[in-house]
Amino acid sequence: MIARADETVLLMFDLVNTIDCPDVPRICRLEPTLFYSYGDAEVFQSMPLTREIINEMEPLVARLSATDPEGRSLHYYAEFAVPEAGYTLRYPVEGTIELFATSNFISIELPPEKAVEPSDKVHNFFWGYGPDKVRRGLDQGGRYIIAPPAIDVAKGGRIALLDPVNERIIIYNPSEESYGSAPLPFYYNLNADLAFDADGQLVVCDWAGEYVEGTPPIPYCYRLHPDGSVEAAAPVYVKFPSKITKALKVLDQFDYRLVAPFNSQGDGNSRGSQRQKETWDLPYRFVEGEQGFDMYTARFADIRGDVAFEVHSASGIGGLVDFEKTPQGYLMIFGGSEQIRAVWIDPSGVTLKDVTLQRGKYTEISLYGQVAIAQDGSLYVLGSTERGIEIHFVEAP
Question: For the domain 2-103, what is the CATH code?
Fold first, then answer.
């Protein structure tokens, strides 16, 4: 959550109590409590959460100042107790939810989206057989065209392209016009992503997961050696995995916090270690109020840089795809049905470059895997057509 330092924030929890009391013919009484503090204070205050009708829903809510009089940001957790059943649920399970509140808030008014323009370069991978070709197929239900869904780019410019029908990852080096590959270490089931770390080591993640008896499928990530063999594999204990950060942390959309599948030595982290989730350094989301999401206004933040941007467009913003720090400042990426808008800004919020690219969606493409941002701030965008896969390149300003 991103807030101005002088704002009051509305916290909402959607919870359905289905616990029956054994001695009385009714649902047990729920006692929801919010525990909150500011800054580094270890002593938490508490307040009951109450139900209100908001936007035709009836969530449990609380209203609190984003900061205390000393300017320290809010952090909190909630407990949902059912005393009659001896049951308590804590959210989050470990730690607290950290609100980022700052007085360094920069407003940006985006003009209407520009007309689609050609990219600086297009890397083509046509349908077919061979090291520079990709294949397509249908899922088991025949509903989706399966083809490369995700890309990433390494520091030296190498491009990794997930090629699931061929059960491999293509490694393309544009400067040498060379093609290598690594075997895909899992069966692809419509949901996967990959990423290079800062040193160029590749990690590929199976978001569909592996089935374990008695539990839902668990996502897995695999660190690969340069020769493509698996160095380490680790389960990822997240509810809704989404993007992989440059530090190889996985964003859980359930609470917008980060989980580290691997430790600094490259070994898999235990479930207990992964419960110690981390704050997302570069969060972004639409502004949400009592009337729901404002699809014309979004907020982006650099927590380490203590700055936030409120971006508004009278014509609508489109989907939020990515937000990254670059040598120029920042890059904001917005998605439409068949196009991508990329806006580079400097640290003060001044627009440096604003482009709209055509991005075909002939096949299924991952929301977070469809773009890759190079170390110099340049952008790569994945698209698909009846001819094959296209990777559009746009040079940073």
Answer: 2.60.40
